[in-house]
């Protein structure tokens, strides 16, 4: 690669400094190194101490062999190539398509015309209505399709909301620590303030309103205009699923301090312990219980096809719903999403399939249920196996798997390991994760990439990869690492 020269208009010192300041650990140095190893192995070279790379650093299910849901992909195939519908007999008798697949494809085509054409900027109206119907079934309260905005995955929705919220460098957003680094990186690019509040690891990474208030009051005393609070439920990287009392407490806090709630709910189907309770349901319930008190609590909740049992990250489909927002603000949000024209229409169609899957009694239901349950049970089994492995490892502590796709264990490393890390200019958790990658081919993310309390060390790993051999390699590596630096 050619270096920077005076002949180039752009160099590393004159590009947007806020982009340079942003950090995104899940695709950082470890991920880059893991891809180098993957390419090396693909060239047939065999001198590494492992034969495959396990990308446990990112929630990318289908890269790790999670199979697509048949109904979803069959419908998408017809949307991409509608001429196939002229061969109905072949589809039904020879290719395993069911009548409801063809019916759904025809219905979606009648609503979007072509997946190669732009839709309305906030998404095809019929798809927004299908989402509204899903939300009403899920929560037991009405939803209005006019308040729903389809996006290119939840990340695009977060980007839209933060652009609207952050007016200047004094604008602050309360963000949970540890958190998915999309939030800190986006706020860095916007030159806005990330106001950290720490989750309570001793309570399965629960929220503590006292901690939130302390963070809020400290920020406001420093002149920061705190405007919103982010909640990730179920949690990333922690996997925690919030109980009703925590959700109620957050909504009450938001009411008291006039904060917008951003509820990142993309893991809502990945719950192993307890149940998923949406912020929309709880807010509407509180409005019903105390009429008038919560009518101006603004909520934006997000969902995506990338996670859950769908795992269609590459199709970039998602949505957010606005509750209690000022109509004039919503008009500006519509204008903002219009600048990008619309989200991918094939992704929009996939969102419709996610929120409106085959129902009992329909031809595709039996296979859909089998595939869905198989993915869910497989995730839970692998999470349990990985958790049991951590229990065997010296100095590693990890709560029971609760949900999402991740475990976030605490690791206690010997002082010599910390010294060796410092000699390399790394934090101790970065040092550990890099050594793990070089020894086993397993790529995880150091806890410092998500934020953690001073003096504590963690790493985040997905449990998406098939099989258990890689889990055994982590156990072996950890013992050897501890023995080396004891």
UniProtKB/TrEMBL annotation:
Keywords: Aminotransferase, Pyridoxal phosphate, Transferase. Pfam families: Aminotran_1_2. One of its GO terms (molecular function) is pyridoxal phosphate binding. Residues 109-468 form the Aminotransferase class I/classII large domain. Its cofactor is pyridoxal 5'-phosphate. Belongs to the class-I pyridoxal-phosphate-dependent aminotransferase family. Alanine aminotransferase subfamily. Homodimer. This is Glutamate pyruvate transaminase.
């Amino acid at each position: 690669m050619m270096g920077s020269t005076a002949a180039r208009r752009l160099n590393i010192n004159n590009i947007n400094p806020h982009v340079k300041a942003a950090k995104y650990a899940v695709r950082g140095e470890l991920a880059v190194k893991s891809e180098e190893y993957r390419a090396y192995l693909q060239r047939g070279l065999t001198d590494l101490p492992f034969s495959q790379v396990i990308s446990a650093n990112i929630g990318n299910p289908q890269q790790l062999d999670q199979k697509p849901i048949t109904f979803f992909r069959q419908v998408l195939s017809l949307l991409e190539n509608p001429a196939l519908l002229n061969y109905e007999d072949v589809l039904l008798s020879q290719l395993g398509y069911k009548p409801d697949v063809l019916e759904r494809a025809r219905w979606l085509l009648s609503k979007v015309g072509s997946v190669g054409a732009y839709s309305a900027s906030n998404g095809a109206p019929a798809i927004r209505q299908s989402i509204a119907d899903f939300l009403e079934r899920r929560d037991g309260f009405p939803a209005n399709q006019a308040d729903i905005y389809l996006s290119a995955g939840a990340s695009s929705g977060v980007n839209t909301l933060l652009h609207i919220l952050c007016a200047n460098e004094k604008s602050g957003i309360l963000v949970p620590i540890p958190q998915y680094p999309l939030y800190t990186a986006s706020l860095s690019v916007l030159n806005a303030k990330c106001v950290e509040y720490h989750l309570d690891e001793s309570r399965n990474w629960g929220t503590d309103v006292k901690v939130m208030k302390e963070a809020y009051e400290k920020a406001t005393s420093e002149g920061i205009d705190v405007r919103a609070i982010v909640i990730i439920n179920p949690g990333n990287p922690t996997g925690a699923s919030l109980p009703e009392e925590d959700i109620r407490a957050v909504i009450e806090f938001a009411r008291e301090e006039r904060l917008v709630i951003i509820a990142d709910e993309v893991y809502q189907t990945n719950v192993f312990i307890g149940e998923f309770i949406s912020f929309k349901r709880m807010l509407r319930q509180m409005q019903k219980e105390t009429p008038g008190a919560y009518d101006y609590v603004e909520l934006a909740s997000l969902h995506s096809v990338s996670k859950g049992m769908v795992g269609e990250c590459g199709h970039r489909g998602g949505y957010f719903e606005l509750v209690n927002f000022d109509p004039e603000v919503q008009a500006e949000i519509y204008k903002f999403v219009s600048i990008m024209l619309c989200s991918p229409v094939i992704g929009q169609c996939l969102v419709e399939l996610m929120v409106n899957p085959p129902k009992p009694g329909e031809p595709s239901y039996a296979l859909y249920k089998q595939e869905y349950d198989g993915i869910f049970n497989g995730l839970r089994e692998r999470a349990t196996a990985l958790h049991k492995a951590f229990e065997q490892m010296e100095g590693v502590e990890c709560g029971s798997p609760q949900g999402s796709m991740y475990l976030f264990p605490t690791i206690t490393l010997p002082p010599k390991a910390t010294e060796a890390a410092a000699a390399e200019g790394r934090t101790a958790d970065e040092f550990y994760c890099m050594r793990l990658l070089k020894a086993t081919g397993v790529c995880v993310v150091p806890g410092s990439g998500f934020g953690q309390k001073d003096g504590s060390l963690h790493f985040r790993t997905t449990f998406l990869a098939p099989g258990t051999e890689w889990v055994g390699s982590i156990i072996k590596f950890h013992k050897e690492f501890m023995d080396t630096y004891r």
